[in-house]
Amino acid sequence: MDFAGMFRTWLNVLTRPGEEVFEEERQRETATFATAFIWIAIAAVLASIFGVFQGLIQLTFNFESMWVQILSELDPVTAEQLAPMMPMLAGAGFGSLVFAFCIGIVIVPVFFFMGSLLWFAVAKLFGGSGEFEEQTYLLGTFSAPITIINAVLGIIPVLNICTGIAIFVYQLVLTYFALKVSHNLTSGRALGVILTLVGGVFLLLCCAVALLSFGMAALMEGAGTSF
């Protein structure tokens, strides 16, 4: 694995957004599924490591103080009986971090390739002529480093919130150029692909939130009438 070449590609795409850079990447011999998968797998592992690190920080600084507060609110006898459970609960918390790490290294690649498939399907509806492998590689050139960047920023929640929207918008800009080049789309059609998929996902989320709200309201109303 050429790690130096990998970082050069990531840096080149992130700092020089445009059709020219994606056209250069499209013509590389390494523009394959294998390369995209390796990059996303590396990003998944690093993102999961940073996620575990973030969880350890929260576990270290929050768990002990929370446990002490809980014990202080109990009567002395009950508190004395529950005190030995603290190491066991801490171990369970660490175990959940390990589980989250294992899930993360699987979920990230799955979501990436599912997302690439959605982009491919919508691009075809707009007359795209590219191949799925080529498109997936181009998406991987920036999705992998952005996944790592988001994981690093996640360690500082306030910073992550402030930069999250900007990174998301920038990722859409890069996606626009990647789809335009890989599918030989006009500017209008490439923009149509972006707006269609983003708008569709937004509408689905709104419907899900509305259904959840109606469901919660119905449950609360039912609970109220049962008393």
Keywords for this structure?
227 residues; 87% helix; mainly alpha; globular; 8 helices
Please give the structural blueprint.
Elements (H helix, E strand, L loop, with lengths): L2 H13 L3 H8 L6 H40 L3 H7 L2 H41 L6 H22 L3 H26 L4 H40 L1
Written account of the structure:
The protein has one domain (3-186). The protein has 8 helices and no strands. It has helices at residues 3-15, 19-26, 33-72, 76-82, 85-125, 132-153, 157-182, 187-226. α7 (157-182) packs across α8 (187-226). The longest helix is centred in the middle third of the chain and has 41 residues, at 85-125.
**How would you describe the oligomerization state of the chains in this entry?**
single chain
> Total strand count, please?
0
Instruction: Report the β-strand fraction as a percent range.
Output: under 5%
Mean pLDDT: 82
Number of helices: 8
Query: Major β-sheet, in short?
Result: none
Question: What Rg is obtained from the alpha carbons, in whole angstroms?
Answer: 23 Å
What count of structural domains?
1
Task: Sum this structure up briefly.
With 227 residues, this protein is mainly α.
